[in-house]
Structure formats: C-alpha cells, structure tokens
C-alpha cells in the first residue's frame, strides 16, 4: 500500500487525511463500500463534532481477556468512546444511519462510566468515599506546606540569605531559593542548585508534612487500584461488547474523517462502478497546486499517451491510477461528479528504473520481470511509464505489441506513456486502444499540459533542447542526421493534431449550440402544454355549463312532455357537442417503452398498431388511444391511491343522462345499463355518461364489450378527468 501511494505522489495527501483520525489507523475501510457511502451521505447532513483523540485499546482488550487490571487512564479511554456514542444517540437520524446507531446498545454497567469521570479523566467527587477523603487530606497538606514555607520566608533571620520571596517547585518539591551560608540560620536540605550558584532548599520543619503527603498518596493509589480491579472485572464480563464498540468507533471515525476532509476543499466522493470503465472529468492531482484539470475517457482497454517531453504524460498516468486508488478506499478528491471510476482488485504502477547492481539486473530485464507478473493478475489496472526503457525501440515495439494484446485478452487495463511512434502505429488499428497526445504550443514554444484523444503526439525533442539552451547550429545538424523523411512524418503528425484540435473545438461549439436549441425547444414545449391545459380547462367549464343547462331542460321535459321540447334539447346538445378547441400538435418519434402523456394521463407506450397506440398508465390501466394524441413525458409516476369501491347502487330513473354502476355485479350492471340506454333513446338524448369505475377492470371490460355490440351506439370515449376520467364513458347515441 505504501509503495503504490508513494509512486503515485499521494503520500502527503494521505497523511493529511490521516491527521483527521482520532487515533492512528489504516485508510482501508473494510466492508460494503456502497453501505459506507450511504451512511457517510446521511451523516454529512448533520453538524456533528469530530470524536476526541482516543488511544489504541488493542493491548487493553488483551489485558482484560487475560484477567489483567487496567490503569485508570485506560478505563477513561473506553469512557470517551462510550460518551461519543451517547452523543450520537441524541441526534434524530433516519434510514440506514438510524438502524446502525440503534443496534449499538450499551450495557447499563458500562453506562455508569459516564458518571465516574470528569472531562479531564479524573474521578468525580462522590464516586468513592475513601478516595474523596484522601484527596481532601492531600489538599489540606499542600496548604500547610505552603503556609510553612511562607512563614520561613518571612523570618527576619533568613531574609539576608533569600534570593527572592517565591515558593519554587523543584523536582516535584516546594522549595525556597537562598544564598550560601543559609545553614547558619536554618536547617534545610538542598534539592537543586541554580545556574547562578544559588541553592533550592527544603526546610526540615516541613519534612514531616511531606512525609504525611507521601503516605496519603500511597493510600490513594491503593484505593484507585481497588477501583480499577472492580472496573476491570466488570469489563471482563462485557469483553465482546468492548471489542464491538471499539471496532464501531473506528468505523465512525473513518466516516467523520472523510466528511471533514471532503468539506475542507470541496472534494467529491466517487464510488467505483461495477464495470471497469473510467472517465475522468476535471480531475486535479492532489500533488499539484494550480494544475490544469484533466479530462480523459478511458472506456477502452489501453490508453497510450505520446507527445511532447515534460508535457504531463506521466502525471496523466498517475492521475488515472490515483483516481482509481482514492475511489477504491472511498477517499474524496477534486473531480467533477460526472466522472466514472472502475472497480479494480489490483492497482499496479511500473514507473521506476528497476536496474540494480545488487541484484545484477538490467533496466530492460527488470521491466520484463515486472511485466511477467501481470499475466497472473486478474481485475487489474496497470500504469507503465516510458515503456521503451532500456532496449532497442524497434524490437521493443514488436514485443510490447504482442504483450499488450495478450494482457487485453485477460481484461487488464493499461495506461502507457511512450515515445515509440512505431509501437503507437502498430496499436493504432486496435479498437481497444485509445491514443492520446500531449499538446505543444508552437507559438510560445512550451507544453500546454493539455491532451487530445485519437492521435499520436510529436515529442518535440529539438524544440525542447533549443528551449533549454542547446546551440541552434547543433540542433540544425541533429535534424539533418535525423532525416528529412522522418521530419516530414512529424509534420504530418503535428498537422493531424492541429486538425483534431480544430475538429474538437468545432464539436464543442456545435454541442453548445445544440444544448441551447434543446433548451429553447423544451421551453416552447412547456408553453404549448400550458396552453393546452388552459384550453382543456376552459372546455371543461363549458361542458359543466352545458350539463347544468341540460339538467334544467330535462326537468322541463319531465314536467311537460312535448316533441318541441325534445327538438330544442337536441339542438342544444348538438351545439354543445360542436364546442371544440384546436390542440397544437407536434409530430414526435415515439417508440415502445417511452414514457408518454395522453391528455392528463401519463404512462408507458406498450405497442403501436398503425395510427393507434396502446399505453399502460401509472395506475396500471391499459388504454387504446390515437397515436397522434400522444406526447413524450419524462416525469416519473407519482404514487397513486387506489379509489375505494362505492357500495351503493344508483339506479337511473327513466330519461336520466347519468348512470353509476359502482359496486354492481357484472350481470346486474349490464342489465341496468341496457335499461338505462333504452330510456335515454326514448327520451331522445344524443349523449349520456356512464360511471363504471376502475377497480379490477372486470366491470370496465364488460361495459366496453357490451357497448361495442349495441346497435344504437354511434361511439363512446373516456370521460374528461373532471367527469370521471378513465372510470367513466361518454356514450353518443
């Protein structure tokens, strides 16, 4: 672990993270990474204090297991852990976090520890009576010693020998500072000598008081030992709980450290995905300050980075591996949230020159040893810097081409930096290899630290040499030796890079224009939908006004049966039926599985037959509707409440325009429907409304089947949402 962290220049970053732990531990967070991330997300919503510094208690747990006696400060360390979990239990957590904290049930015996200690780890007054009495006696003894010393200091005989009138604490003893010759006026013991030649002395008349204090301290230690034995015995009974709570404390410590580390510099958590695809967006390597963000798509098996010297090729390699490593151990870092990181069991870096005099191994031989181990790896990502190191470039190109292609078959991801144009050319036709070029600013003659995918980069060795002071005539001669044909090849590579860069810029511009167009289109679509809703709303009001008028007309007909009245009613009905609003339609390419909207109902497109479509709405009901009336909908279904079945039967009177079939059996409902339609035809109605409800769908299906066969029915359709929607039919006679 330390080796790969050092190779990727992450040592300082990891150490700064570990400083946030309350006690030293590995960065590895064992267990389900998805569950850990869920708990970290929930915990980060609360303003919670970080745990205090706590000692490592592994040895203390072994002492308890061996029936040993813990010291008072060890017991207090366990108390700090208990107190932190009691603190966490005060919060109103929800979800997985609540489940986890609720599972931590602290035994009543251990809960008492919270009342034993103050915030500094000292026993509180009242815990042990003997301890309290001894403590009070020690305080009184200290006062007596201090008073005796000040009495000696104020003695007129000693005053000529005093250096100052202070009481000094020397070697844990209260003493006074005197000049030589003091023994003529006071009997005292010298405990120390100052740099100026004066003496720190303790008068003999307070020796008895000090002996008394020593005896009291010994008794206090005996009382504390008795107390520690009692607590240690109790700890032995709850050993399994103490091991559990110690482990859970490390877990919450991991969570809190990651939360504070993420908030410190606005870092993001990026979970590894189940596949091994990688896509870094605006990643900044932690070791670099003010670096340009890196964006790279690593969905293929191999990335081969070529191009200018000192252009950031190695840092690109380290960046990809660093992102994978940090995500693997759920450590936050600076990258855009849209980044995708693969999940790998092994993360390997072949970066250094393996040459060793001690082991009698050459650079190339050392590289071959490292490559040979890769064939036994699975689910690995490997970074290889300067792959051509240590051997002939043409031979190496052929060898590494075969090695890389074999490693691709083993599903191993590889990031390579190289100056091998031949190796890059050999692998360019492989659809599992992505070429990336480090770019160079010709005008200013310096690397840009930017990268372009899909092309081979030029190394710019001559330009780099010139920039660092190599004489121009030497560079000119070197170019001649290099050859005009190879120089022309480099020019072609450079021109290709320029074209790729120009093409990329055009694509970015087109993408932005397309994004703007889509945004405008979405706005216009929303405006159209709002206008449609307004039209439907107005039409609904007109329908209601018409129904109210028709009800009044029906009552008039019942009161005075007249053919003239029927005629006027039919005319009114015809006029109301002709009230229509023109809905603005937009032809959309819909396919099976799309979410669609039909009037105010939303659902999924199940099938298409000609100009008809079958949809299943969010209530689970299937409908046959005109394809032209459908529009795309991206909204997810809202939770629906199933309507309660009405248990009352409303039988229509002769000549009524509404019938409610809720709660009726199929055969009973069809009988009532037949009578209702006969009465409506006799009354001369052109349009009636039947409520059959949704329910299980049996009554609705039976009603539609009956209406399909009835000879006097011209057509029928689902009612407007204000009149029952899918649970009702408007029938035209």
The CATH topology of the domain at 270-465, please?
A: Rossmann fold
Main sheet: strand order: 10-11-12-8-13-14
Write down how many β-strands occur, each being a DSSP E stretch of 2 or more residues.
23
Query: What number is the mean pLDDT?
Result: 82
User: In what range is the share of β-strand residues?
Assistant: 15-25%
Low-confidence stretches: 640-655
Short description:
The chain has 21 helices and 23 strands.
Could you characterize what this model shows?
The protein has a six-stranded mixed sheet, with helices on both faces. A five-stranded antiparallel sheet has the order 18-17-16-15-19, with no helix packed on it. The protein has 733 residues and is an alpha/beta fold. Among the domains are: 270-465, Rossmann fold (3-Layer(aba) Sandwich), CATH 3.40.50; 504-575; 592-630, Roll (SH3 type barrels); 656-730, 2-Layer Sandwich (Ribosomal Protein S8, Chain: A, domain 1), CATH 3.30.1370. Strand 13 and strand 14 form a beta hairpin. Helix 5 (72-88) crosses helix 11.
């Amino acid at each position: 672990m330390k080796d790969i962290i050092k190779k990727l220049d992450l040592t300082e970053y990891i150490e700064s993270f570990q400083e946030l732990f309350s006690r030293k531990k590995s960065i590895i967070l064992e267990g389900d990474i998805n569950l850990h991330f869920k708990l970290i997300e929930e915990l980060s919503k609360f303003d919670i204090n970080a745990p205090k510094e706590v000692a490592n208690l592994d040895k203390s747990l072994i002492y308890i297991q061996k029936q040993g006696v813990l010291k008072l400060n060890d017991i207090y360390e366990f108390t700090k852990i208990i107190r932190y979990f009691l603190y966490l239990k005060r919060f109103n957590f929800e979800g997985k976090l609540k489940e986890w904290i609720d599972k931590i049930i602290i035994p009543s015996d251990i809960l008492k520890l919270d009342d034993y200690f103050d915030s500094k780890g000292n026993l509180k007054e009242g815990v042990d009576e003997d301890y309290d009495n001894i403590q009070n006696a020690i305080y009184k003894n200290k006062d007596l010693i201090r008073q005796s010393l000040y009495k000696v200091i104020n003695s007129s005989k000693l005053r000529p020998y005093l250096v100052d009138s202070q009481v000094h604490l020397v070697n844990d003893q209260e003493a006074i500072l005197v000049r030589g010759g003091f023994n003529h006026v006071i009997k005292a013991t010298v405990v120390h000598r100052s740099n100026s030649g004066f003496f720190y002395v303790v008068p003999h008349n307070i020796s008895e008081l000090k002996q008394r204090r020593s005896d009291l301290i010994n008794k206090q230690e005996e009382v504390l030992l008795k107390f520690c034995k009692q607590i240690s015995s109790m700890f032995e009974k709850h050993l399994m709980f103490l091991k559990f709570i110690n482990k859970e404390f490390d877990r919450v410590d991991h969570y809190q450290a990651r939360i504070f580390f993420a908030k410190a510099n606005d870092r993001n958590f990026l979970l590894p995905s189940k596949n091994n695809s990688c896509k870094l967006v605006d990643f900044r390597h932690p070791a670099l300050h003010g670096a340009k963000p890196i964006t790279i798509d690593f969905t293929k098996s191999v990335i081969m980075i070529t191009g200018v010297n000192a252009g950031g090729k190695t840092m690109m390699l380290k960046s990809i591996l660093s992102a994978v490593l940090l995500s693997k151990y759920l450590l936050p870092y600076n990258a855009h949230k849209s980044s995708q990181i693969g999940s790998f069991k092994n993360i390997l870096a072949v970066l250094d020159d393996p040459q060793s005099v001690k082991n009698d191994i050459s650079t190339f031989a050392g590289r071959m040893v490292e490559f040979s181990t890769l064939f036994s790896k699975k689910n690995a990502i490997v970074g290889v810097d300067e792959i051509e190191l240590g051997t002939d470039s043409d031979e190496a190109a052929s060898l590494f081409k075969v090695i890389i292609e074999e490693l691709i078959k083993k599903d191993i991801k590889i990031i390579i930096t190289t100056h091998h144009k031949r190796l890059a050319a050999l692998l360019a036709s492989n659809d599992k290899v992505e070429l990336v070029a480090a770019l160079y600013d010709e005008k200013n003659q310096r690397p840009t630290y930017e990268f372009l995918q899909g092309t081979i980069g030029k190394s710019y060795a001559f330009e780099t040499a010139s920039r660092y002071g190599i004489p121009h005539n030497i560079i000119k001669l070197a170019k001649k030796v290099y050859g005009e044909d190879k120089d022309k090849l480099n020019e072609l590579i450079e021109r290709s890079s320029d074209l790729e860069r120009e093409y990329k810029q055009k694509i970015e511009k087109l993408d932005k224009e397309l994004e703007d167009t889509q945004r405008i289109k979405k706005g216009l679509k929303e405006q159209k939908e709002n206008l449609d809703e307004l039209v439907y709303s107005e039409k609904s009001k007109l329908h209601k006004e018409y129904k109210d008028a028709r009800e009044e007309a029906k009552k008039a007909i019942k009161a005075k049966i007249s053919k003239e009245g029927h005629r006027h009613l039919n005319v009114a009905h015809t006029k109301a039926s002709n009230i229509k609003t023109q809905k603005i339609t937009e032809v959309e390419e819909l396919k099976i599985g799309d979410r669609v909207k039909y009037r105010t109902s939303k659902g999924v497109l199940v099938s298409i037959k000609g100009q008809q479509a079958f949809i299943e709405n969010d209530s689970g009901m299937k409908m046959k509707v005109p394809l032209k009336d459908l529009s795309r909908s991206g909204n997810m279904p809202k939770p629906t409440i199933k309507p309660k079945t009405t248990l009352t039967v409303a039988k229509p009177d002769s000549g009524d325009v509404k019938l409610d079939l809720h709660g009726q059996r199929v055969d009973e409902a069809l009988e009532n429907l037949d009578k209702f339609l006969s009465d409506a035809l006799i009354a001369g109605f052109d349009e009636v409304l039947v409520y059959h409800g949704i329910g299980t769908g049996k009554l609705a299906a039976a009603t539609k089947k009956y209406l399909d066969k009835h000879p006097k029915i011209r057509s029928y359709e689902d009612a407007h949402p204000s009149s029952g929607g899918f649970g009702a039919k408007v029938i035209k006679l």
